[in-house]
Give the backbone structure.
Amino acid sequence: MRKNFLSDDEISRRTFLRAVGALGATGLTTVRASGTPGHSPAEPAAPKRLGTVELDLDGIHKWDDSNGDTWDPFWADDDHLYSFNDDGRGFGKVQENLAFNRFDGESLSSLVGVPVNSMAEYGSATQRGKDNATWKACGQECIDGVFYGFVSRNVYGNESGDHLMRQTAFNSSLIKSTDRGLTWQRTAEENYSRPMWPGPKFGAPFFVHYGKNGGNVSRDGAAEYVYAVSTNGFWNDGDSLILGRVKRKALPRLEPAEWEYFTGGNGKASGSWSRRIDAAEPFLKRPAKCGETPICYVPALGIYLLISWYNPKVLTKWFEPSGMMYDFYQAEHPWGPWSFIRSFSDSFLAPGYHMYGPTLCSKFQESHGSEVRLAMFTSGCQFEDKPSGIYKAWTIPVVLRTEVLPPCDMRAASSPEVKFSGGWTTVANSHAEGDGVRESRHQGDSLTTSFVGSGIEYVAQKAEGYGEVDLYLDGKLQKKIRLGLKNFPVLTGISVFQKHGLARGRHDVKLVNAGTGPVTVQYLKIYR
């Protein structure tokens, strides 16, 4: 949000198999698609259909020293992640309409944010022009060593006149940097007076992310073209998405006349593209359910993903959503056809808090058996600029599975099959799924239950000051589970432990308060 004050190719199968072999001892493969100019593009591989997608809410990570929204980190040729942010100071000190930042570090959880450019020429945070609009950054990418970012004019939803109180986005342009974000061409004044894409039709463009330095992928013409996707002129709750592309070698010229737009049919055919943006045909139509978003290629699966995000109810006050939905879609080609996978709400957050503005990152994708994990960046509101606030950059791991998990049954804490030992109490929490939260404050308190099935999942509430749980399965310690949070609101319905592929038969599970603070249980899931 802006505050007011959705397959022919992947990384080379041979390269992928060599990586698997090299890391075979752990079963874990980090997917790193090369993007070095002059290298042959990766070979095609058959796309793999997803069985399901999950958000690993137990793995949420937030940068407490950041501030702002619309984080869309791209993987540059120097192996760093870089990102604009909107309406905030980023990792710097001054609140701006947009700012440019770098993430340093070897792993996702160890990344440290560094301010690069305050982008002061685009104005201080919420600063408007004569058109009553503010500057906002949209999508961004590194292509062949050059950084690119889309910028557009935006009018906040409480001032846009839109009947759904949507933030309008229009008059977009593309800027570039050849010195890693220190300076940018075109200027803000050029973009204001002579926008590359006047009007709303390409008002909120985001790149298709293929990997490091723009990726080294041959499928769908990605070695020849750069693709971008845009809503029909809205930051939030847009109605549709269209796809544009430009020759990769022509991109540096920043010439809109060289772009063409998907008009329907088979995107591999030249006849499915037109230089006229008015001829563009949406590849996804979802009235009031298309927030601005990038598309991300997943090389280990040979598929594309996008997140269609939206408010489930019409806003009555800017920007105070009653909830937020993230709908995941998959396709074999950037033009589709796109198919729905699964929807997620932000009801796991404490009342009054919401997430919005998701993007999927091409770096730190990890393949493990039938699973692929990748990072979703997002932000949230309320909007306090303090360490405990969520108007910041944060990530949630996304788990993609090609295998469908067996059906499961919920075993509530109140079930007679669940036995408690010690001083467990019921915590009143209308926000929690199931029949509430059971809490223990004493070391050694335990919960035991037996089940017949192929898997078990433990769902709990997490909060600041919570302690640790020792989880035993069939008498063996499986994991010490931390339920404590730092600088984050209370989280409910969090899957903190899963174990699948158990031998058919009877199993015993035991949860023990390890004595480091209060611990909770909401319910268990038993997989058949």
User: Anything to note?
Assistant: The longest strand covers residues 371-381. DSSP finds two helices and 38 strands in the chain.
